[in-house]
Amino acid sequence: MLYYLKDYEELFGPLRLFSFVTFRAAGAAFTSLLLAVALGPLTVRVLTRLNASAPLRLKDLVPDEQLDYSKEHTPSMGGVLIILSIVVAAMLWGNPGNPILLVFLGTLLALGGLGFLDDYSKVVLRRRDGISARLKIAFQCAIALCAVTFVFSIPTGEPYMWTVMVPFLKDPVLTGAVGASVALALGILAVIGASNAVNITDGKDGLAVGCMIFAALAYAAFAYLCGHRIFAEHLHIPYIPGAGEVGVFASAIAGVSIGFLWYNCHPASMFMGDTGSLALGGTIALVAVLVKQELTLIIVGGVFVMECISVMLQVLSYKTRGKRIFLRAPIHDHFERKGWRETQIVVRFWILAGIFALCALLTLKIR
After folding, report:
1. Half-sphere exposure of 175 (CA within 13 A, CB side)
2. pTM (2 d.p.)
């Protein structure tokens, strides 16, 4: 809403700052960070009471071999704070009249609502598995289909949206009907895969949200560059008018991730739960879809990909050979079994996340 103050710059010159995406992105990041830090104590108290109202034990939620009794009384569903902070910051500093921003906010709320239902069924209703896996995937598919279709249908994205682009190449590799079909499928897969990958990674204090900081900053940069005609032409990437507003949105994600980390670092005061992990992973992937960097998501989210693949390989190996590849999956649990302390695992994975994000940004110059 502050975006409209630019219309009064003739009355007060400095108000023209609100027309700059970079200024508003910084404002959104700072606002979401402050909201998360300021509302954190209240959120912890409310969630603690909610968790205490249901006599739930940790073993009702996770398999015996994955128990960590030190976290038994730590409240979940902290993703509510994350979503609230992002929505307020994005609406305050973004352009509410931009349809792209509204699509992202709608996707955030939809995925967050799905995660909230899952968390609520586990925490309050005492259902160990939450809502059924099939139902969750069905809702994720429906949300992803709607979100990607809306993004592709935005006129300013033509002619790039319905094509498939590959890192390091200037031009689309697939166009026409085939390209449109593959692009749609790739976009849906990215949203679903990223939301679940972040969910899998969220197993150690501060691990997922710390890695999300780097991913959000990387895609905030991608969105800004794609929304700037001169930079887009220079870097040979799609120019998408209005994409800069998504840079404001991604900056809000980075800010709230830093703020939430204040309470999620070891020892955590609260967890984000599916409410936060599904929403953050899905919306970051949607940013990748918008800027036609879906495949670059594999690099940006290298830690999330590594965690997800470790689970897939473990399951596949156990079902086909009856043997485990890792001591435990996801891979962060494997390293813990190897003797790494939790803080070592988290900080080292943060370092990897930063390196992956920088490598992804370097692809912009190698074309």
Report:
1. 5
2. 0.92
- The answer to whether residues 286 and 108 touch, using CB atoms and an 8 Å cutoff, is no
- Could you tell me the pLDDT band of residue 124, with boundaries at 50, 70 and 90? confident
Backbone phi, then psi, for 164, in 5-degree steps?
Answer: -115, 125
Reading the block at residue 249, the tokens are 């949105």
Alpha carbon 314 to its chain centroid, in Å, reads 24
User: Under the phi-then-psi rule, with left for phi > 0, alpha for psi from -120 to 50, and beta for the rest, what region is 77?
Assistant: left
Domain ranges of the chain: 2-362
Residue 318's identity, in one-letter code, is: Y
Q: For residues 272 and 261, give the distance between their C-alpha atoms in angstroms, rounded to a whole number.
A: 10
Number of Cβ within a 10 Å radius of residue 132: 12
Residue given tokens 């005061």 in the structure block = 269
Of residues 243, 276, 260, the one with CA closest to residue 108:
276
Rounded Cα–Cα distance for residues 60 and 70 (Å): 15
**10 Å Cβ neighbour count for 271?**
26
Torsion sign over Cα 113, 86, 191, 205: negative
State the alpha helices, DSSP H only, in the chain. 21-53, 79-93, 99-123, 133-153, 176-201, 207-226, 229-235, 244-264, 273-290, 297-300, 302-321, 331-337, 342-362
Q: Provide DSSP, 12-37.
A: SGGGGGGG-HHHHHHHHHHHHHHHHH
Residue 153's pLDDT band, with cuts at 50, 70 and 90, is confident
